[in-house]
Amino acid sequence: MLGHDLARVFADTKPTCWDCNDLDITDKTAVFKKIGELKPTVVVNAAAYTDVDGAETEINKERALTINGTAVGYLAEVCGKLGAILVHYSTEYVFDGTKKDGYVEGDPVCPVNVYGESKALGEKLLQQNCEMFYLIRSSWLYGKAPQAGKPRGMNFVQTMLKLAETQKEIRVVNDQFGKPTYAADLATETRKLIESQKPCGIYHITNDGVCTWYDFAKKIFEIKGIGVTVKPIPSEEYPTPTPRPKYAVLQNTKLELMRDWEKALKEYLESI
Prior knowledge:
CATH superfamily of the largest domain: NAD(P)-binding Rossmann-like Domain
Strand content: 5-15%
Distance between the termini: 15 Å
CATH class of the largest domain: Alpha Beta
Strand order of the largest sheet: 1-2-3-8
Shape: globular
CATH architecture of the largest domain: 3-Layer(aba) Sandwich
Structural class: alpha/beta
Number of helices: 8
């Protein structure tokens, strides 16, 4: 999802864009060979294992830790050797969600699930193996495909719209807080960050404003004019295999704030 928007935002620079079929980032030899031959000045890594519940199973735990953790270390190593800047994305799930004021860039990580653990490992290996990096944390991403505004994947927005086709009442948790972020905005801000030549380090980039999943769902249906009832429920009434942080809100203390999440959501919904 994010990779497509990054390719669009950087299109005029004629970027080299690889998918998993072009480069398996968990293969250290391949990483050093292909990136070493290319000799880039900037590498942007939008690859990730993102199935939060799936990561909790024994069969997928190692996969999540390898893709989100070990492989990031390989990318950091080769970028360090080449003197290239590595841009990597992380998540609010590296925090436990107990800090009521939200989390600033320098707060210590404290994940509560395997997905968060894998992303925290990636952050650690990035910082250990590469001096020139932008580590960007974001949250609650949604976006669209590059062709004709077609939705890509079942992000939260698409999931809600799909449910509304068959259900008159939708139950959504109202005690998990975050910042919905439009992938197109994140891609644009990524380019701004690189071109600004700000000091390397950790940055939080999200659309502005905090809401619950319930608030998010209500706004989706309000903008689309869909007459469905949204019922707020506690997390206990919607059990999942994975513990999730209740208030993993990312606070941005280093950059200008992005536009409000409701404005970004409206643009997205109008575009699809």
